[in-house]
Design a protein that fits this description.
By secondary structure, the chain is mainly alpha-helical. Helices cover 62% and strands 10% of the residues.
Length: 147
């Protein structure tokens, strides 16, 4: 039985996703005045932003990073003022990670940049955006589950 979608169609889809990624890259041709992050730092920051209070171990597991690589990224994010470590009020042996005000500001500017770029690219025709986002989330989830 032949696959429902051809390999060429899937490859073209991946290529389009990569091209879009380059266009909305905050350090690309339309650079923003935000704290510059490496790919690993951005991955860790995204998780901490969505899961404030997570432990370093939880972040490493959720992002599929080696603990040592996650620790390096976290140290850098702390140094850049993007993440703060707090002692867990219920267990002084545990550290919780929280985004800082600087992180919230940078993320808000980044999200506004993305929204502006995508709205302009769509020219006001946003039909199908929710379905496209759902499809991309399914792909993201499937890729993460399968490594």
């Amino acid at each position: 039985m032949a696959p429902a979608v051809s390999d060429d169609a899937l490859a073209e889809f991946a290529d389009v996703v990569l091209r879009i990624g380059r266009e909305v890259d905050p350090h690309g041709p339309h650079a923003l005045d935000i704290v510059p992050l490496t790919g690993t730092e951005a991955l860790v920051m995204r998780w901490v932003h969505h899961n404030p209070g997570a432990s370093p171990s939880a972040v490493a597991e959720a992002t599929a990073l080696q603990r040592s690589n996650c620790s390096v990224a976290l140290r850098s994010l702390v140094t850049k003022g993007m993440v703060e470590r707090r002692t867990d009020p219920d267990d002084a042996r545990t550290v919780q990670l929280h985004p800082t005000a600087l992180a919230h500001d940078s993320i808000a500017r980044l999200h506004a940049h993305w929204a502006d770029r995508l709205r302009a690219a769509l020219g006001g025709d946003e039909d199908g955006l929710d379905a496209a986002a759902d499809l991309l989330r399914r792909i993201d989830d499937g890729l993460r589950r399968r490594g």
